[in-house]
Amino acid sequence: MTVLESFSLNGKVAVVTGASRGIGRALAQALGEAGAAVAVTARTLEPAQRAADELRAAGITALPVGLEVTDPAQVDLMVRRVTDELGPIDVLVNNAGISIGSPALETPDEVWREVLATNLDGVWYCSKAVGAQMVERGGGAIVNVGSMSGMIVNRPRWQPPYLASKAAVHQLTKALAAEWAPHGVRVNAIAPGYILTEASPVDRPEYREWCVEPAAMKRYGLPEELGGAVVFLASGASSFMTGAVMVIDGGYTLF
Fold it and tell me: To which protein family does this belong (predicted)?
């Protein structure tokens, strides 16, 4: 096998949560371009269907699935549906997440619970449901979407629940990697910096001082710039990697 062949996902089945737009949509595209059949999930079916239609137009096998990641019963149904329609799941990308910014003393408890439920509990439920299948089969790759916010405190917008959730995702990645390595299941994460999406309009002038200028590369990233790293972590090209958190932030955390 050549180096380039080791990146191939031909014949693999991948699930990407929160894949109807932004980072998740770009990651689904990247995995599909590498050869995987991709299950595209979103909280409601309609946006998942639109994303799947776009992927199919690009020649990618795509299955839309409505999924609320905070509901274990829906997660179990998703796993069964994907397995029935595409085959056993080889790759799981836990991307679904939310960010609600406010100072700690102004953050209602229900916001704390909502952010942690989506960003952490969702990763837990999906990893357990898909991981059980992977452990039984003796192989698989899980890629969690963490954040550089799990390592630093972002400014100027305070967001304690988001920071706590992403730090927890990084540590959960390491815990599952250690536990499941003997079963052939690799668990890694990426930690993106500021990425331009619908939910993160970092191209606006007011974001430049805090989101662009501090980065070594003096710019924000684009969702598609994360695709190569996720294909790497999902494929045999990273066969000796598990428990790693790959920072992709344009050098923001160097200073």
Answer: Belongs to the short-chain dehydrogenases/reductases (SDR) family.
pLDDT digits (tens, 9 = 90+) for 190-235: 999 999 999 999 999 999 999 999 999 999 999 999 999 999 999 9
The Cα 41–Cα 53 span in angstroms is 13
- Beta strands, E only, 27-159: 37-42, 62-66, 91-94, 140-145
Task: Collect all residues with Cβ–Cβ distance below 8 Å to 217 and sequence separation of at least 6.
Answer: 250, 251
Structure tokens given for 185: 């299941």
CA proximity to 117, closest of 169, 152, 155, 81: 169
Coil, helix or strand at residue 64: strand
Q: What is the DSSP letter of 186?
A: E
Distances (CA, A) of 160 to 102, 115, 153, 252: 8, 10, 9, 19
Q: What does the alpha-carbon distance between residue 142 and residue 73 come to, in Å, rounded to a whole number?
A: 20
Instruction: Spell out a b/e string for 121-137, using b for 16 or more CB atoms within 10 Å of the CB, else e.
Output: bbbbbbbebbbebbbee
User: What are the beta bridge partners of residue 187?
Assistant: 142
Phi, psi at 142, each rounded to 5°: -115, 130
Give the residue numbers annotated as catalytic, written as ranges: 162
Q: pLDDT by residue (tens digit) across 12-59?
A: 999 999 999 999 999 999 999 999 999 999 999 999 999 999 999 999
Picking from 190, 186, 175, 183, the residue whose alpha carbon sits closest to that of residue 242 is: 186
